[in-house]
Design brief:
Largest sheet of chain B: 10 strands, mixed
Distance between the termini of chain A: 40 Å
Order of helices and strands of chain B: HEHEHEHEEEHHHEHEEHHEHH
Largest interface: A-B, 50 and 60 residues
Strand order of the largest sheet of chain A: 1-2
Distance between the termini of chain B: 47 Å
Shape of chain B: globular
Mean pLDDT of chain A: 82
Number of helices of chain A: 23
Low-confidence stretches of chain A: 293-298
CATH superfamily of the largest domain in chain B: Periplasmic binding protein-like II
Oligomer: heterodimer
Strand content of chain A: under 5%
Helix content of chain B: 25-40%
Structural class of chain A: mainly alpha
Structural class of chain B: alpha/beta
Strand content of chain B: 15-25%
Number of helices of chain B: 12
CATH class of the largest domain in chain A: Mainly Alpha
Number of strands of chain B: 10
CATH superfamily of the largest domain in chain A: MetI-like
Helix content of chain A: over 70%
Low-confidence stretches of chain B: 16-20
Number of domains of chain A: 2
Shape of chain A: globular
Mean pLDDT of chain B: 90
Largest sheet of chain A: 2 strands, parallel
Radius of gyration of chain A: 24 Å
CATH topology of the largest domain in chain A: MetI-like fold
Number of domains of chain B: 2
C-alpha cells in the first residue's frame, strides 16, 4: 500500500470530521441577547448590504426576453472568458508562487532574505500599471519591441487568444505574491520529521517536495488561489487596459451608457451572474480555510534544514528567482523610474501632481479610518458572543469580497438616489467613500477578528470583575491589546483604497482627480510616461505599509 | 470625530469653486488636447476663462442627470450626437439663441435649438494597401460581414460612441434585420477581439495584423501624419448610386439648463460657429467644420465629393436604446 495514499485518506477523514463538527456546532449557537455591539453590528451589516439589494431590485426591470438575449449571447462568452482567465492565472501564480516559496524556505543562498521582500513588492503595483507598462514595453517602439515576434504579438494583441494570454500574464505577475506568502508560511510550519524520514529514504529534493510537502501545502495553496481567483474575476485595471471582455469590464461598459433614468437593467443582470460565480468561489475558500486548520496545530518543531547549494544549483536557483523578479519588479520599476525622470525634467511634477497625490491620500485615509471603526462592532460582536446572528453579520460584511468596484458603486449610487434628489459634490464624494469602504470592508473585519482571537476572554472577564463597564473595558483592556491588529487592518484597507480605480473612475468628481484616475486616463491616451510619476508615487506610498504588514507577520 | 468636522469642511471647500472673474465650466467628452487651443484663443479674445472637466460623454450625461440643479456645468460638449440628444430629451439643456445657428444645416442641430453641431466626422474603412486586391469586393460597410474577412477585420468595443451611432444610422437606412445580420457577421470576423481605441485599429492595419478596420476618418490621417510611409489608405464605403452613403456623426455643444451664465456660454458658441472658431475647432482633429463655407484640412476627402447618409443627428439619441438592444441581441462585446 502506498504511504502517500493512506496519509491522504487519513487527512481527508480528518477534514470530513472537522467539517461535520463545524456543522453540528452551529446548532449550539443561540440568537444572542440584544447589546450595543449586536445592534450596531446588525445595523452596519445592513448598510453594507444595501447596494447589493439595490442591484438585485434594479435587475427586476430586465424582461424575460432580455434575459434570454443575455443568456444566449453575452453571458456564455463572458463566462468562458472570465473562467479561462481565472484558470490560467491560478495555474501561473501556482507555479511562480510555489516554486519561489520552496526555494526560499528550503535552500540557503546569497540574498535569500532580500528575495522574500522583493517577491512581495508586486502587491504595491496596481494591475493597470502592469498592463500599461507591458503593452508599451512590447509595442513596436517599446524597449522589448524587437525581442521577438512571439511576445510582441501577444502584447500588441490582435487576437482574442493573445489578449487572454497577455492579460493572464499581467494578472499573474501582479498576484503571485498571495500564493508565495501563504505557501511560504505553510512550508515553514510543516513538520520537519516527515521530511527527515523522506530524506533518510533517499528521496530527491523534487520527490520530497512532490510526495511529502505538496500534499501538505494543498490547503494553503487552495486558500491563496481562492484569493487570486477572486482578485482576477473582480479585476478592472488589467482587463480594461487590455480590453479583455470579462464580467467586471462588461458591467462597467453597460453601466456607462447614457441613460434617461436610473435603470441599470443589463449591467445589474450581469452583476447577478458574476455574484453567483464569485459566491461559488467564496464558499470554496471558506471550505478550504476550514481544512487549513488540521496541520496548523502541529507540534512545534525545529527549523528546517536549509541546504547549501553547489555553484551550478545556485546559478539555476538565481536564474529562476531572477526571472520572476525581473518581470514582476525590476522591469516595471525601472521603466517607471526612467519615464518619471523624463517627466521631472519636463516639469510634469507640478502643483497639479501634488493635488492628485493629496486627493488620493485623504480619500484612502478617510476610507481606512472609517472602515476600521465600522468593522469593530462586527468583529467585537462575533468575539464576545458568537451566535448565528454574529456569523451572519461577518458573512454579510464580507460582501465586498465578491462585488467588483463597478457593481458596488452602481449599487451605492442607486441607494443614494433614494435619499438625495440632487447630487452635489458632497453626495458624490460620500458615495465614492462609502463604496470603497464596502469594497474593502472584509480586510478590516478579518484583520480585527484575528486580532481579537488572540485575546482570551478571561482578560476581559477580569476587567469586568474589577468593575469596568463594557465601554471602559473596551477602551482600557481590549484596545491596548489589539492596537497592533487595528493598525494592520488600517494599513490593509489604506493600500487598496489608494489603488482603487473603477469606483473613482465612475464618480470622476470635477477637481477631485486622483493618482489612479490620472494613470488610467494617460494610459488611455497611450501617454503613460506622463503618468509614470503618479504610478511611482503609488508604489512608494504603499511600500511602508507593506513593510508594516510583513513585520506583523513575523 | 473632530477630524470628521475638518473633513466636511474640506469637501465643502473643494466643492465650492467660487470665483469672481468671468468663467465657464464645461463638461466635455471631447479630448482636452483638441479643446485647449480653441479655448485659449477664446480666452484671449474675450477674457473668459474656461475650465474643462473631461470624461466619457455618456458618463457626463449620467452625472448631470443625477446633479440636476446642483450641476457645476455651464455647458456640455460631446463627441457624439447621441449623448447630446439624450441630454436634450431628459431636459438637461436649454435652448440657445436661434440667431447663432443660421449658418448650420438642420440635420446638424437640435429641432428645439438645445444643441448644435460644431464639427463632423465620417465613419470609414481603413485598409492595408497590400490587401487591396483581396478586398476588392468591399464596397459597403455591410460587406464587412462577408465570410472572406474572417480574422482580418478590426472593430472597437460596441460601447464606443462612434460605433454605436454608426449602427443607429445603418439600422435607420438598411433596417433592423440586415443590421443584426451584419453585426453577427462582424462578430465572427473580428474573432471576439475588440480594440481599445480606433488608433490601435489603424496601427494594427498598418502593421498588417489586420487587413481592414472600421474607424473615424481622422484616425487614418493622424497616423499618416506621424508615419507618412504607413501602407494604409482610406476606403469610403457605400458611395455608389443607390447605396446609403457614409455615416456621419458630430461633435456638438449644449447649454446646461441650470447655468446662471447662459449669455457667457452663448458668447462661446458664437465664437465656435464663427469662421475662425470653426476652422480652429475642426482642424485640430482633421474633422469637417459643420459650416460648409469653412475649409477642412486638405488631406481628408473633400466633403462635396462624398455621399453622406441622410440621417438627422438627433436620431442618434432618439434610437440609442433601440440600438443597444440590437447590439445585445447580436452579442457584440
Amino acid at each position: 500500500m502506498n504511504n502517500n495514499q493512506s496519509a491522504q485518506s487519513n487527512s481527508i477523514k480528518l477534514i470530513l470530521n472537522k467539517f461535520r463538527n463545524k456543522i453540528l456546532d452551529l446548532g449550539k449557537y443561540t440568537w444572542s441577547r440584544i447589546t450595543a455591539a449586536s445592534l450596531l453590528s446588525v445595523f452596519i451589516t445592513l448598510i453594507i448590504l444595501l447596494p447589493l439589494i439595490a442591484i438585485l431590485f434594479n435587475s427586476g426591470s430586465v424582461t424575460a426576453s432580455k434575459w434570454s438575449d443575455l443568456l444566449s449571447n453575452s453571458i456564455p462568452g463572458l463566462l468562458a472568458n472570465t473562467l479561462k482567465l481565472a484558470i490560467i492565472v491560478a495555474f501561473l501564480t501556482s507555479i511562480i508562487g510555489v516554486s519561489a516559496a520552496w526555494l526560499v524556505t528550503r535552500y540557503r543562498f546569497i540574498g535569500s532574505k532580500v528575495v522574500v521582500w522583493l517577491l512581495i513588492l508586486p502587491l504595491a503595483i496596481p494591475t493597470y500599471v502592469y498592463a500599461d507598462i507591458y503593452t508599451r514595453l512590447f509595442s513596436y517602439d517599446g524597449w522589448l519591441g524587437s525581442i521577438g515576434i512571439f511576445w510582441n504579438s501577444i502584447f500588441v494583441s490582435s487576437s482574442e487568444f493573445s489578449t487572454l494570454i497577455a492579460t493572464s500574464i499581467v494578472l499573474s505577475l501582479a498576484s503571485f505574491p498571495y500564493v508565495f506568502l501563504l505557501v511560504r508560511t505553510s512550508l515553514n510550519k510543516s513538520t520537519k520529521s516527515l521530511e527527515d524520514v523522506a530524506r533518510l529514504h533517499g528521496l530527491s529534493s523534487f520527490q520530497r517536495f512532490w510526495r511529502v510537502n505538496f500534499p501538505l501545502l494543498r490547503p494553503a495553496l487552495a486558500a491563496s488561489l481562492a484569493i487570486v481567483i477572486l482578485h482576477t474575476i473582480s479585476d478592472f485595471g488589467a482587463v480594461s487596459v487590455m480590453q479583455f471582455p470579462t464580467f467586471t469590464w462588461e458591467i462597467y461598459i453597460k453601466s456607462s451608457h447614457a441613460k434617461a433614468d436610473n435603470d441599470y437593467g443589463p449591467a445589474a443582470a450581469l452583476s447577478i451572474v458574476l455574484i453567483v460565480l464569485a459566491f461559488t468561489f467564496l464558499i470554496l475558500e471558506r471550505f478550504f480555510r476550514s481544512r487549513q486548520r488540521y496541520y496548523a496545530d502541529d507540534i512545534k518543531n525545529g527549523e528546517h534544514l536549509k541546504k547549501k547549494l553547489s555553484k551550478l544549483q545556485l546559478f539555476s536557483v538565481w536564474f529562476w528567482i531572477g526571472l520572476i523578479l525581473v518581470f514582476s519588479v525590476g522591469l516595471p520599476l525601472f521603466w517607471l523610474l526612467v519615464k518619471s525622470w523624463a517627466s521631472i525634467q519636463q516639469n510634469y511634477i507640478n502643483s497639479e501632481f501634488w493635488q492628485y497625490t493629496f486627493n488620493s491620500f485623504w480619500i484612502a485615509f478617510v476610507v481606512a479610518s472609517i472602515a476600521i471603526m465600522t468593522a469593530l462592532p462586527i468583529a467585537l460582536f462575533n468575539y464576545r458572543r458568537q451566535s448565528r446572528l454574529s456569523q451572519l453579520c461577518i458573512h454579510g460584511s464580507n460582501v465586498g469580497f465578491i462585488l467588483p468596484g463597478p457593481v458596488v458603486i452602481i449599487g451605492t449610487l442607486l441607494v443614494f438616489a433614494l435619499f438625495v434628489s440632487e447630487f452635489g459634490s458632497l453626495a458624490f464624494v460620500a458615495a465614492w467613500i462609502a463604496a470603497v469602504i464596502i469594497r474593502y470592508m472584509p480586510f478590516a473585519v478579518q484583520a480585527e477578528e484575528s486580532a481579537l482571537q488572540q485575546i482570551t476572554p478571561s482578560i476581559e472577564q477580569a476587567g469586568r470583575l474589577l468593575g469596568l463597564n463594557a465601554w471602559q473595558n473596551l477602551k482600557r483592556v481590549l484596545f491596548p491589546i489589539m492596537r497592533q491588529g487595528l493598525a494592520g487592518a488600517w494599513v490593509l484597507v489604506f493600500i487598496d483604497a489608494l489603488k482603487e480605480l473603477p469606483i473613482a473612475l465612475i464618480i470622476n468628481e470635477p477637481g477631485m482627480m486622483t493618482l489612479p484616475i490620472k494613470i488610467w486616463l494617460e494610459a488611455d491616451d497611450e501617454t503613460l510616461e506622463l503618468a509614470a510619476p503618479a504610478a511611482l508615487m503609488l508604489v512608494f506610498v504603499t511600500l511602508p505599509a507593506l513593510w508594516l504588514i510583513m513585520r506583523d507577520k513575523k | 470625530m473632530k477630524y470628521f468636522k475638518y473633513l466636511i469642511l474640506l469637501i465643502v471647500l473643494i466643492g465650492s469653486g467660487v470665483s469672481a472673474a468671468e468663467s465657464l465650466v464645461i463638461y466635455s467628452g471631447r479630448h482636452a488636447k483638441f479643446l485647449k487651443p480653441v479655448m485659449a484663443e477664446f480666452e484671449k479674445q474675450t477674457g473668459i476663462k474656461v475650465t474643462l472637466h473631461n470624461a466619457k460623454a455618456s458618463a457626463l450625461i449620467n452625472r448631470m442627470r443625477l446633479e440636476k440643479s446642483k450641476t457645476k456645468a455651464d455647458a456640455f460638449i460631446s463627441n457624439d450626437a447621441g449623448s447630446l440628444q439624450i441630454g436634450s430629451d431628459i431636459g438637461l439643456f436649454q435652448a440657445m439663441d436661434k440667431g447663432l445657428l443660421t449658418k448650420i444645416e438642420k440635420n446638424y442641430k437640435a429641432k428645439d435649438n438645445t444643441w448644435v453641431g460644431l464639427s463632423a466626422r465620417a465613419r470609414v474603412l481603413v485598409v492595408n494597401k497590400a490587401s487591396l486586391k483581396e478586398l476588392d469586393f468591399v464596397k459597403s460597410v455591410f460587406d464587412l460581414a462577408d465570410k472572406r474577412l474572417k480574422g482580418k477585420l478590426a472593430i472597437t468595443h460596441s460601447a464606443n460612441g462612434s460605433f454605436l451611432s454608426g449602427i443607429t444610422v445603418y439600422v435607420k437606412v438598411a433596417g433592423k434585420e440586415k443590421t443584426l445580420k451584419f453585426m453577427k457577421g462582424i462578430k465572427i470576423n473580428s474573432e471576439g477581439k475588440v480594440f481599445r481605441k480606433h488608433s490601435k485599429i489603424v496601427k494594427a492595419v498598418a502593421a498588417g495584423k489586420k487587413s481592414i478596420g472600421l474607424v473615424n476618418h481622422y484616425y487614418i490621417y493622424r497616423h499618416l501624419a506621424k508615419n507618412p510611409n504607413a501602407p494604409i489608405q482610406i476606403l469610403l464605403p457605400d458611395q455608389a448610386n443607390g447605396q446609403m452613403g457614409v455615416a456621419w456623426n458630430i461633435t456638438g455643444i449644449a447649454i446646461s439648463k441650470h447655468t446662471k451664465k447662459k449669455e457667457t456660454v452663448e458668447k462661446l458658441i458664437k465664437f465656435l460657429v464663427s469662421k475662425k472658431g470653426q476652422s480652429l475647432f475642426a482642424n485640430q482633429n482633421r474633422e469637417y467644420p459643420i459650416r460648409v463655407d469653412v475649409k477642412a484640412s486638405p488631406e481628408i476627402p473633400a466633403r462635396d465629393k462624398m455621399n453622406v447618409a441622410d440621417v438627422p443627428m438627433s436620431l442618434l439619441g432618439k434610437d440609442h436604446s433601440k440600438t443597444l438592444n440590437l447590439i445585445e441581441k447580436a452579442g457584440l462585446y
